[in-house]
């Protein structure tokens, strides 16, 4: 679909481009290689302003691009316009800046997260309804949609699409660097008209983290089955995603004081239910982190629970993992790094 069919003439006419936005258009027209070379000559403050403008630029019609570019009008006219997004800014910046500085610049450019309800509303739909909708969509479109819904929703929807299609869609989700803005806008307008028209694109690191969160919530046996296939089909990106995963078994890498903090946050039957399905070594680690009286009470509670459903156990374990992540974000505990996950006494 041509970008011109997606623009809103009334809004475009009223909007006046700032100096930073005009500079961003110039860099987009120059392309990654020449744009990177030129940006090397700017100071950090100028780079920040242009990056901020580029991440929120959205679709700019050809007429406005021509007005900004002047001498480049012929080349711009052939391309119908340009698209500015977080993904294009990220690609350009990686041409000459180190990883940590790119991450910081993009975070500064985005600023406070915008309130967007369209994807939240779509995620709230029953997973069967979402799966039925996706059955009529192309795999690439389904991958783009599931990359934007909550990871736990995507984890429930994917198995409903069947084994082969689930693998095909997951492979596309892993390999997807960034969805073109025009395509995302068309998808969003199809799902719900005029909601989140200016949705920002996630960076490659954010896409990997979303996939890691999705895999964390998949059934363990299902993930093990998928891993064999994905390691053959997309080995490098899949390995990068696995490095970002944090599962229930990874709690074994925490020290006793961290485990005690997690257990204090657990409500109701969450703890005994989670430990009923845990490996003996990990269950013993949890118990040893408790005072003797609390340990005896927990063992007794697990003993009188009777048979429990595997799905309930996995849900309880997922709650403990989420508690661990929340405590880590609050800097109450420290999660092990993938590069250094051994504890040294």
UniProtKB/TrEMBL annotation:
Its main location: other. It is found in: Bacterial flagellum basal body; Cell membrane. Residues 229-335 form the Flagellar motor switch protein FliG C-terminal domain. It holds the Pfam family FliG_C. InterPro entries: Flg_Motor_Flig, Flg_Motor_Flig_C, FliG_a-hlx, FliG_M, FliG_N. Keywords: Bacterial flagellum, Cell membrane, Cell projection, Chemotaxis, Cilium, Flagellar rotation, Flagellum, Membrane. One of its GO terms (cellular component) is bacterial-type flagellum basal body. It comes from the Bacteria. FliG is one of three proteins (FliG, FliN, FliM) that forms the rotor-mounted switch complex (C ring), located at the base of the basal body. This complex interacts with the CheY and CheZ chemotaxis proteins, in addition to contacting components of the motor that determine the direction of flagellar rotation. This is Flagellar motor switch protein FliG. It comes from Mesobaculum littorinae.
